[in-house]
Design a protein that fits this description.
Layout (H helix, E strand, L loop, with lengths): L4 H11 L6 E6 L5 E7 L4 E6 L6 E5 L11 H10 L3 E7 L5 E9 L5 E9 L6 E6 L5 E4 L35 H24 L7 H10 L16 H8 L5 H13 L12 H17 L6 E4 L5 E4 L11 E2 L3 H9 L2 H39 L2 H13 L10 E5 L8 E5 L6 H45 L2 H13 L22 E4 L5 E4 L3 H11 L5 E5 L7 E3 L6 H13 L9 E7 L3 E2 L10 E2 L3 E5 L3 H6 L2 E3 L1
Length: 625
């Protein structure tokens, strides 16, 4: 995990500026995330996330869509913390645990003190509200029952218990002499452990019982009990020091080697002092809270970030002015995208199957069309047989007749059924002619409809690629309305839905609003109801994508370029270059009667060519309206 004790220390240091700030509003946009609106000291939005994959705490500028009905935990925090003052923000040692102390007035006007505990520990992450006076848990964003954990319970009314102690050393409190002694002690302990393993005791305890006994043993707080420092220095540092991630331990070893430290495995005399020097160069700015956040690709191509400079990032290192800015850029919308992927998997599978079925149907229709193209030949055969009944006898397998429809009056051989009379053979060809003639009309209709179905499925798949959690439900409701899916909420009382969808609105560099539709409901509202006749409408040319509207009659080239960027970015051609984007006035855009949701036709357009720039899109301010 990139978020270690050092990054946590950087976050807490940055948030000290908000000690004394007031908590204005509290929102819970998703199951794991909370947003605190801070008032005073410049203000800001604080994101608290107990996401099991991306737990984090930092200031954010990202707009989020909040549910109309706040979840219970959010309501509880509003009751106890809204209007309260942040007294302190502290880190527990070098652990990924942060305490935010808040003082506020209760319903009776009396002062009360609460603590919000943020535990950033992977899948065990949690946000817990406690009463300072009693240490009792008021509630947690994730409940932990006795059936889940026998060590501690996170439920209302239970005394708060810290996560299990790892008995590691604080790397910021270790000096040179102690560091050298730790290496010696750990090396000796590793040798003794190796000797004990070689002795092979008579009875060896294995399995779950062995793991239980090992967990009950208190780890010595001297760095021993783990890997040998000489054999595995990275593993030893991670084992010995609190808040030390493999990333930082690897950075220390890289600096050790860069400084000329001789390390090829065996324990040498200069090894402890050389390792200390590398260790201290990393820890010294952390002790002094001099953080210079950076992100970029490692030597293996994996994106990493840190609160201190890294030699591991050789090229394309991106510096940041704050750790919050760094984390905001690094995490982006990863957490939401992962949640969306889980929620849309069934829809993607359904739409993919529907698209495949229609492509197969299209192939079959084209075969039928090729056969039906012979309809005119059957009419000619029937008429030639009727004109020459005297020249054909029952029992003939074919008839060679003059083709009066041919300019050269060439003979034509017509296949016959010997069991039928010449007249019945002619009638059979006329029936076949009428059948294919009628089917041509049906096939043409089916081809048009099938092409529309494929385009519709592809547009929905593109919309799901950019969908937020709110957008997913609108797309699902659309599929129910169109008859593709059954309404799963028929048995439950459905809430009255607002006729106006919530839209993401970007602000151009010229201060003009640019509306973006993320699904067909939003596209139709933006284009057909919200926009004025002289507003400018944009859409990728012949590529599924969002409807984009510039809500102004007057704007410069910068706004037009940014709107085209948005149209290309929120389309199926997001990863392409020189994407064609058509733009025209709303007055020239219309929806054909009976067409699929989101489908429009337009004219008087001009085409721009843009290459989607994600950094530019991220820089544009946005909100939800």
């Amino acid at each position: 995990m990139a978020l270690d004790g050092i990054v946590t220390r950087a976050i807490v240091h940055e948030l000290q500026a908000f000690t004394g700030a007031r908590i204005g509003k509290i929102y819970q946009p998703s199951t794991h995330d909370l947003i605190f609106i801070l008032r005073g000291f410049g203000g800001g939005k604080l994101l608290l996330s107990a996401n099991p994959t991306y737990p984090r705490l930092h200031l954010t500028e990202r707009s989020s869509l909040n549910p109309s009905d706040a979840p219970m935990f959010c309501m509880l925090l509003r009751k106890h913390c809204e209007g309260g003052t942040i007294e302190s923000i502290t880190q527990v040692g070098m652990e990924r645990i942060i305490h935010i102390s808040i003082k506020s007035r209760d319903e009776l006007g009396d002062l009360s003190a609460k603590t919000i505990i943020i535990e950033l520990m992977g899948r065990h992450s949690n946000i817990i509200l406690t009463d300072q006076a009693t240490g009792t848990i008021i509630d947690g964003i994730h409940h932990v029952t006795p059936s889940i954990s026998s060590y501690r319970v996170v439920m209302p009314g239970v005394s708060y218990t810290e996560p299990p102690q790892q008995h590691k050393l604080n790397p910021l409190a270790v000096g040179k002499e102690q560091f050298v002694q730790l290496i010696a002690a750990a090396e000796e302990a590793a040798l003794l452990e190796g000797a004990e393993e070689e002795s092979e005791p008579e009875e060896v305890i294995e399995g779950e019982l062995a793991n239980l006994l090992k967990s009950l043993e208190e780890q010595p707080a001297d760095g021993s009990g783990g890997p040998s420092p000489s054999g595995n220095p990275v593993g030893w540092m991670v084992h010995a020091f609190s808040g030390m991630s493999p990333l930082i331990a690897g950075e220390i070893m890289l600096r050790f080697k860069e400084s000329g430290g001789a390390y090829d495995g065996p324990f040498g005399e200069d090894f402890p002092l050389r390792l200390w020097e590398a260790f201290d160069t990393v820890m010294e700015p952390v002790r002094a809270c001099r953080f210079t956040p950076v992100a970029g690709p490692s030597s293996k191509g994996k994106m990493i970030f840190s609160a201190v400079p890294l030699l591991q990032i050789q090229e394309n290192a991106k510096p940041y002015s704050s750790i919050s800015e760094c984390m905001e850029d690094y995490y982006g919308d990863k957490a939401e995208r992962d949640t969306v992927k889980q929620r849309v998997s069934d829809l993607i599978r359904f739409l993919g199957n529907e698209r495949s079925k229609n492509i197969k149907k299209l192939t079959n229709l084209k075969k039928d069309l090729d056969e039906a193209q012979d309809a005119e030949r059957y009419r000619i055969w029937g008429e030639l047989l009727f004109a020459s009944l005297h020249a054909v006898s029952k029992g003939d397998k074919s008839a060679s007749l003059v083709n009066y429809y041919d300019e050269n009056q060439a003979e034509i051989v017509i296949p016959l059924d010997p069991l039928l009379s010449p007249s019945d053979n002619a009638q059979r060809y006329f029936k076949r002619y009428n059948k294919y003639k009628n089917s041509l009309r049906v096939i043409d209709e089916q081809l048009t409809r099938t092409h529309e179905e494929i385009a519709y499925m592809e547009s929905l798949l593109q919309q799901l690629a950019h969908a937020s959690l709110h957008d997913i439900e609108e797309i699902r409701d659309e599929l129910v309305t169109q008859g593709y899916l059954r309404d799963r909420s028929k048995k439950t009382k459905k809430k009255k839905k607002s006729a106006k969808p919530i839209l993401q609105v970007f602000t151009s560099s010229e201060g003009i609003d640019i509306y973006v539709g993320k699904n067909n409901l939003q596209n139709e509202y933006v284009t057909n109801r919200l926009a004025s006749p002289n507003d400018t409408w944009l859409h990728t040319k012949d590529i599924p994508g969002s409807h984009v509207v510039i809500r102004s009659e007057q704007f410069g080239d910068a706004t037009l370029e940014e709107a085209a960027q948005l149209a290309a970015f929120f389309s199926q051609a997001k990863q392409s270059s020189s994407v064609p984007v058509d733009c025209t006035l709303i007055r020239y855009v219309r929806k054909p009667s009976g067409s699929k949701p989101g489908f429009v036709i337009y004219d008087h357009q001009k085409t721009l060519f843009v290459t989607p720039d994600e950094d530019l899109i991220r820089r544009l301010p946005s909100s939800y309206k």
